[in-house]
Amino acid sequence: MKTTFLLASLLLLPVAAHAACAPTDFVIKDFKTSISGAGGGARLMLAGELVNNCTDSSAAQIRIDAKDGEGKVIQSKDGWPAGTANIAPGATAKFDLGRRFRYQSDMATYTVSVIAVRAW
Questions:
Q1: Which of 2, 6, 46, 55 is the most exposed place for a label (fewest CB within 10 A)?
Q2: pTM of the prediction?
């Protein structure tokens, strides 16, 4: 009786999904930046595509760093391009995290990287 209860309890516990994929299985393609408008009304476009090169459907979290002319990070934002959906092997998810940033005139360069992977 105790064994049956223990087994039933274990089956009801939520299990975190861990992807068999790694951040290195994803690549960023066609990352483009642009600024429209001026001053406080300036809007950033920080867009590209996230490509899943893993053999499993998974999702990846990306980070974009905005850097000044000396390479110092002045703003950083994370996002999941596919939201809470997995990206099929070989498929892509488009993203634009520009709206998450507040434009600063000393922003000189932007880098984007894959920081985490999971299966939903």
A1: 2
A2: 0.80
